[in-house]
Amino acid sequence: MSTDTAAGSGPADTEEMTVREAIRLAMREELEQDDDVFVVGEDVGEFGGVFEVTSGLVDDFGEDRIRDTPISEAGFMGAAVGAAATGTRPVVEIMFADFLGVCAEQIINQMAKNRYMFGGKTEMPVTVRTTEGGGMGAASQHSGTLHTWFAHFPGVMAVAPGSPASAKGLLKTAIRSDDPVFVFENKMMYEQTGEVPLDENFTIPLGEASVEREGEDVTVVATQRMVGESLELAEELAGETSVEVIDLQSLYPLDTDTLVESVNKTGRLVVADESPLSYGTHAEVASRVMENAFYSLDAPIQRVGVADVHIPFSPALEDEVLPHGDDVKAAIDRIV
Amino acid sequence: MVVIDLETEDGQREAMRRMLTIRAFDSKAGELFGDGELPGFVHLYIGEEAVGVGACAALEDDDYITSTHRGHGHCIAKGLDPEEMMAELYGKADGYCNGKGGSMHIADVDAGMLGANGIVGAGPPLATGAALTSQYNDEGTVALAFFGDGAVAQGQIHEAINIAATWDLPAVFLVENNQFGEGTPVEKQHNVQNLSETAEAYNIPGFTVDGMDVTAVYEAVREARKRAADGEGPTFIEAETYRYRGHFEGDQQPYRTDEDVAIWQDRDAIESFKGRLVEAGTLTESEFDEMEATARDEIEAAAAKAKEADYPDPSEAYDDMFNQTVPEISAFADRMRTDGGEDR
């Protein structure tokens, strides 16, 4: 991996902040460091973004660099692709991941394919930030988790932070990357707090998972909100079952080595990701482990996610379909 | 400096030479495809040469264009090398895209050519983005989007024009109305008399020019370019033209007759421009014949060279996906390859 990390540079200062603040800090630092970086999207300016992630940036960087767009995802996603191909580094906000369908053409046939189709003669340094996930009663068109789609499609990279620190580190890496990177933020995590390195060069390489808690009996590979819920569960189970929790962080590329090393130690695997269960992120993690650590497995791999339905509106229904820590517990109970 | 100054006699001869090169290139491409020499599809620009050459002549060297699936003419008009283009049509290693793009995806970003495009209507948002880069960095360059009449029915071009208009971006939107969107006549796809009426919705200038007249296209784009570079925003130009060949080579063309084609061929862009240059004393008949023969010879040589050129090494299929290395591609490729990837 070509991206620099803070590793080896000594313990940097940290500060407790929310995921929202960590993302905003990452953008602020990158905007300060590189004039080619600009933010573009619906209501990202004075309004500050519907989740207030870009709040205040326009005051410091101006409307040229924090750029409100018409409500036309295909138009401004395409403009970002054209801008990236000609030497700037756009950071695009797509308000809800569900709207990626609106601009899928510019992602699938232009952003993802140009470099390859043109024989490697163009670069595509575009970052797409978007929000995923249910839990707000926002119903099906504003609650989807679509990251598998983009992690699967060749030519773009996909990351999904599970903590404030990884939110900062992954977004900075994405912005500095000369390749297109999608950053999938779970909207229920914006208020989640944690220690975040203040080092302006703190980045997390694409394709690196993070072992958030070490354990001996079972590995839980989790993403986004499921990382925190799995850590809470591991704490609850301490003394009874020793749970290793890994924040997958990077969906593509994917850190096979860390997964294999963990399963070689624990012999058991649960994959927890808030996305539809069929053909998904869970399946990819399971396949990598099967291909590389099959003989270490002592029990069938378990998947925790959404049962291939859309996210319903009523709290009673929404709570039913979304995965939680107790679903991870049930999965552990099946195999430990 | 404009690429070709059509106000001068040298510029007029250069414009003629480029139109003849495009016609020779696409005539040869059609012949090669008919002979089964070329893989894939080819979409020929024959008949529309005045639009590409007139428009690119009016641009500056550093300006950008986006193109369509009928992009050979735009490439040559922007100054790309026919030899490298022909190699790409063959899928050879020396082609513009090292054999990964083919006819529909020729690009040379350094030359300002942001790619032919297999998706109808997908280019204008890219031009809006190139114009955004220009404005953002105060580069003074302009981005021109070529697109067809069929693309005017695509939603994303309207988004692209609206954004460019709202932000006063240095862009020019040039629709080549060649009278058919694939096999359906333009009047069956749009309810307006002239596609340039589209401009009214964005409060930008819009007009229709004779796309069989290289000078008319040049003058329209020159004015639009000046307006764009002066920070006054985009212009929408419709160039009325005609494609002599089918939508793609092999198209049986049940939607028109030879007589329909002949009506437009009477106004052929090359013949009419030649007539004017000969009348003005800029070019003699024999100079024209020599110019045409030279263009044909150049393309014949390019095709012969491309035919003999090497295909890319199969292992190159796994290159160029990303700027950075991802372990997945080499690991998966090694497993998939029948030779086990031994030569990698």
UniProtKB/TrEMBL annotation, chain A:
Pfam families, alphabetized: Transket_pyr, Transketolase_C
EC number: 1.2.4.-
Gene3D superfamilies found in the cross-reference section: 3.40.50.920, 3.40.50.970
Keyword Nucleotide-binding: no
Alphabetically ordered keywords of this record: Oxidoreductase, Thiamine pyrophosphate
GO molecular function: oxidoreductase activity
Keyword NADP included in the entry's annotation: no
Domain of life, source organism: Archaea
Leading EC class: oxidoreductase
GO annotation terms (biological process): organic acid metabolic process; sulfur compound biosynthetic process
Cofactor: thiamine diphosphate
Protein name (record): Alpha-ketoacid dehydrogenase subunit beta
Organism: Halorussus caseinilyticus
UniProt lineage: Archaea, Methanobacteriati, Methanobacteriota, Stenosarchaea group, Halobacteria
UniProtKB/TrEMBL annotation, chain B:
Record keywords: Oxidoreductase, Thiamine pyrophosphate
Record carries keyword Oxidoreductase: yes
Lineage start: Archaea, Methanobacteriati, Methanobacteriota, Stenosarchaea group, Halobacteria
An MF annotation (GO) of this entry: oxidoreductase activity
Keyword DNA-binding appears in the UniProt entry: no
CDD domains: TPP_E1_PDC_ADC_BCADC
Limits of the Dehydrogenase E1 component domain: 17-314
A Pfam family matched in the record: E1_dh
The protein, known as: Thiamine pyrophosphate-dependent dehydrogenase E1 component subunit alpha
Top-level taxon of origin: Archaea
Annotated InterPro entries: DH_E1 (IPR001017), PDH_E1_Alpha_Subunit (IPR050642), THDP-binding (IPR029061)
Organism expressing this protein natively: Halorussus caseinilyticus
Required cofactor(s): thiamine diphosphate
Biological processes annotated in GO: organic acid metabolic process; sulfur compound biosynthetic process
